[in-house]
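Bench notes, afternoon.
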Amino acid sequence: MYNYTSCRISELWPCVAKIEINAKQTYTSAFGVFTDDKTGIFKPDYTANFHFKCRNNDCTAEYFDLYDVVASMVAHRQPHSTGTLWCRGHEAKDHDNKCPCRLDYEIVIDYDNKVE
């Protein structure tokens, strides 16, 4: 995965005990529909990078980033969220059309009740 911050989850959000992200990615191309299911478990000593590689190997964006979703959840002390992200890249470097990949996610955050 990509490493864009060296900040640990515990440094940014001391109240977070664990973050679990279940992600289902769907890539529809001329060759068929391809899916990929992944689960990420992020503990306090992990860096705060929540990236999932795009299923399309030619994608110009290369990954989905869930950092903003997680940060908003923690700011509102929200324990559960679901949603969909559409890839922000192009299908390939020599194409103008958007990458057709979609990421459906479910995020569960466990909070440490001793830390506010």
